[in-house]
Design goal:
With 191 residues, the protein is of the alpha/beta class. 32% of the residues lie in helices and 13% in strands.
Length: 191
């Protein structure tokens, strides 16, 4: 019988609260919201404290960059545990562009199973690595905010944060200079 990998955890301060980061030696296993149970992420045994664990340090650094507006995607190794469907749904979240949104139906269609919108919603609710796999970018078909483990105000904050970063990037990007043609010589009437 295979042994369970050792898990390590640390708490990391962010603008959306103190997040608990949990990793194995293979990759990031979970990011938990304040007061959220590790059991929701499928973690039964209590992880060891490990603030110096390489994956936890990498995760903390990339989260800091995300919140500072200098990172738009994550390249942290993941150690996801779930059904094949859940893992496929979670990995598909990474393809939603920074600052963009999609609906559960669009996400299901992108996976090739357009009738699975509700199943996708259930899988997204179980997403153990929020923000890194951005389930906050999935909204209702009518554009409304829908359930989110961190709460709807946090979901709105994350979407607004990404919009602010994109807007700041757009405004800071120099536009092509617009020059009007200047006539260097005035036409002189010939007598």
């Amino acid at each position: 019988m295979p042994t369970k990998p050792h898990l390590y955890s640390t708490t990391h301060q962010t603008p959306v609260g103190d997040l608990t980061l949990i990793a194995s030696d293979q990759g990031l296993r979970a990011i938990l919201w304040p007061k959220e149970s590790a059991r929701r992420a499928g973690i039964a045994n209590r992880p060891r404290r490990g603030p110096d664990h390489r994956i936890l340090k990498q995760t903390a650094a990339q989260l800091d960059e995300y919140f500072a507006g200098t990172r738009r995607s994550f390249d942290i190794p993941l150690d996801l545990e779930g059904t094949r469907f859940q893992v496929a749904a979670w990995r598909a979240l990474a393809s939603i562009p920074f600052g963009g949104t999609t609906s559960y139906g669009q996400q299901a269609a992108a996976l090739g199973i357009p009738t699975a919108a509700r199943a996708l919603g259930a899988a997204n609710r179980a997403n153990p690595v929020c923000i890194v796999l951005p389930c906050h970018r999935v909204i209702g078909a009518d554009g409304s905010l829908t359930g989110f483990a961190g709460g709807l105000p946090t979901k709105q904050w994350l979407l607004d944060h990404e919009a602010r970063v994109l807007m700041a990037t757009f405004v800071a990007t120099p536009q092509w200079e617009r020059r009007e043609r200047i006539q260097s010589r005035l036409p002189m009437p010939v007598a």
